[in-house]
Amino acid sequence: MVSPDGRLVMYLQGGGDYSAERKVLNVSRLDARDSWSSYALNMGPLWQFGQAEHSVPAYGWASDSSGIWTGTRENIDSGGTTSSGLQPVLISLQDGSIRNFAPPRHKAGPLDGLMWADGDGLALAYFGARGQSYQPQRHDRHPTFAMIDAKRGVVLDTLPFDVFERLKDAYYIANVNNAAVTRLHDGRMRAVLSALDQWVTWTQGEPPRILPSPYPDREEANNKMSISPDGSRLLVARLRCDEGYDETEKHSSRSRFWPPCKPVETVIAALFDADTGHRVWEVRGTVRRLDFYPNPAISHDGRYALIGLPPDGSNPLLGLISMDDGRILQRFHSPGPGSLNSMGFLEGDSGVWVHSEGVTSLYDLHTGVQ
What we know:
The protein is mainly β. The protein contains one helix and 26 strands. The chain has a domain of 148 residues: 7 Propeller (Methylamine Dehydrogenase, Chain H), CATH 2.130.10.10. The strands form seven sheets. It has a four-stranded antiparallel sheet, with no helix packed on it.
């Protein structure tokens, strides 16, 4: 992830495993060599919010790029478990200090999930939802989503898991696929939560809106999503083999990767009205093989978005699209040969950044010059 001012980059070291060991957050200036700083993230499996592969991680830039919001747990063991929940922290990149904030309290259980909504300490959260990540295991019976202010240590609003009809059954957290959250112009938060065959649009201080998911199949659980800054629209990205794989190559011992997809045109991204679930537009393409792709990114003014496109060669392909109608305005390859890790827009929408396995590139948004 590149800082809002475009001067710094951070990436997570330690693998993408959900039940992962300790992870390390590495930070460096983009205009200087050998300027790396490293910070241990003692979060265990709480390092990401949803259960979707490569869901949004529990760290994010401060709004002025001076630090990083994240969380920590006390006395974490090699398996990632501990008796404590998360404690919000702010890492200062000016002097390397770490400021700990008292975690908000809720009767549902300890704080055990974070997704930062802005760069000033507002976050979407879980309480009492991840009992298996504790030692000894917890059995909190009424887990809840929450909106919190980490700076003040307060809970601003809550939403019980039972708002999702099918989350009343066992394995609560395992069925929360993904989420997206933003801070509205009036200072409140708005989130969209995806679980099983439902979406929930939740605005701070208002009743939730329950919507049927347009992608209810379990195979759609790893779809990526991003909410527009004004909270009105939800962008969903999906690269799937909708007609299955080419079975003639599926069991080839020479192939290290998934076999090719049956080449049919399908929806690779779609924009939805966050209040009604109505589909505004869709982007179609032919997916010939699967590859990892990150969450889509929406510009601060809501006019543009970045999505992963079906690869046309060895390097992953990206698209700059119009949020008005889904037109692909520009296609370009990721900067490195490996998987595309993350992408986003710089402060003021002056440019876009792309990070791919150790290589970070910045592009001018209007001219496409690297």
